[in-house]
Structures are given as C-alpha cells and as structure tokens.
Amino acid sequence: MTTQPLEVQVQESTELECKDIKLSSWNWEYTDTGFLELGSVESMTIGKENSPTGICIYDQTYGFAGYMVWVDKGCRAEFKVCYDTMNSLDNKLQKIISTNNDKLAKLKECTAVRITFAYVMDQEFGTDNIMTIKAGEMVQFDKKLTDVGSSTGNVYDSGRGVFSCSVSGLYTFNVHVLSSSKKNAAFDLFVVKHGKSRTKITSLYARGEHRAAASMSAVVHLDELDKVLVAANVDSTVYRDHREDRELNNLQDDNIFTGMLVQSDACLVQG
User: Fold this and answer.
1) Is domain 112-266 given the CATH code 2.60.120.40 in the classification?
2) Rounded to an integer, what is the distance from CA 24 to the centroid of its chain?
C-alpha cells in the first residue's frame, strides 16, 4: 500500500472546509489517506481525472468513510474533499478536556460539602450512672462532640433526638450503647422519608451478667428533609462509665450516635 502526498489548496466554504488533493492508485493498488487532524469527511468529488476516463467510479474505485479517503483499481484523479472541522482530532480532544474539567469542577464542589455529627447520652444519668428509657421513646443523645454541615444550627437536634437531612445523598449511621448489669438495652434505628411513617432500618440488643455493649450501623440514601432517629424497642437501661478521668481517657462514647454524609447526589457524575 502506498500513500501519495497531499497537494492542498484551501477552498472557500461556509460550514465546511474543503481541500483539493491528488490521489492515485498505481499498479491498481489500494491507496488511502486520513483527515483525522482536519475533520470528518463529508463529501468527495472528482475535479480532474488523470486515469483513463470511466475508471474512477464513486464507491467502487474511490470513496470516503469517516476520516479516510481512498482510491483503488487504477483510479487517479484530483479530488475536492470537504470535511467538518468540528469533528477534527483537536476539537474532539478539546471537548474531552472541557468535559473532564467540568466533571472535576463539579466533583470538587460537591465533595466540599461536609455533614457529620456525633452525640452522646450525658445529662439524664442518675448518681448510679444508669438511665432507663421507656419502650417506644425516642433517644436523646444530648451532648455534642461534633456537628458540622448546617449554616443555621446543628444537623442533629439533641432536644428532639432527630437528624434532619439537608443534602440528598448516601449516609452512614452508627449507634453504640452499654447496658447496665442484667438489664436489657434494645434500640431501633428509624428513617422517616418524605414526612411519612417510620421505617425501621436496623436494631441492636444488649444484655449481660455485668454490662454488655452492642452496636448497629446502616448505610441509607436520604432525600432532603428526611429524618433519622433512634427509639427504644423495650424498656432499656443503659450505663455510663463513672470514673472521673473518663473524658481524659476518651470514655465519653459509652452511648453514642454518629452520622456522616458519604456522598451527595450532586457528586453522581454521568457519563
């Protein structure tokens, strides 16, 4: 296969650009040349035939496809080839770069959103460091360790015991409790979607001869204004470490509720 050099002459055009080229099929061999850097070929017409008249027949001995023009079986001629510059390699690369830059900018913007909270049970414990929560009651984790994500207040309402979703996306929640000796501690994690009734997501149960720890975790998708809460399944008694150095030794998380936005819906990049 041989490829003849291009003899280029830019023609006037409106939407397309055109070039005059010479293509020759010597010894009846197939010859082609590409327009990848210029654009996709839209038309190819004979200007002057250099081979015996009648040899160059469109789609038989010459033609084009995509970014390629070709001749075969002895066809030799000067052709006018018109191509779409918007489909040139450079434009395609620029489009890819622009699209990727847009996706990256969107990703940076959406990952800048942080929603996370961590609260522990603290105020309602008696002198024996035991607290009982009646069956069906919502649990109020009243002491804030961290709460990030709201410009107007906390994302978790410790007075009501409710997390309110302000950004639609995928969330993870974790609850850890410590039951009192020989007492039950059973809790459910609920989601309230679109203001409807509660839906139980997961549960935990703890009971031990002395004390017992139990945890529950869930990954759920929430829409804006959905709510998440913890409620007692049965009358539950929880215990809090009573040592004076408990905070110094990071023991304040005997009974803790945490949540975090894993990925907002805005981070879902299509394509």
Assistant:
1) yes
2) 52
For residue 36, the tally of other CB atoms under 10 A from its CB is 14
Q: What is the largest CA-CA distance in the chain?
A: 110
Distance CA 155, CA 243 (A): 30
Nearest to 202 by CA among 224, 223, 180, 172: 172
Q: Give the residues across from 133 on adjacent strands.
A: 236
Distance between CA atoms of 206 and 179, rounded to whole angstroms?
6
Q: Could you give the CA distance from residue 133 to residue 186 in angstroms, rounded to a whole number?
A: 10
Backbone angles phi, psi at 36, to 5 degrees: -55, -45
pLDDT in tens, 66-101: 999 999 999 999 999 999 988 888 887 888 888 888
Residue ranges of the domains in the chain?
Answer: 10-87, 112-266
- Residue with structure tokens 């409807």? 196
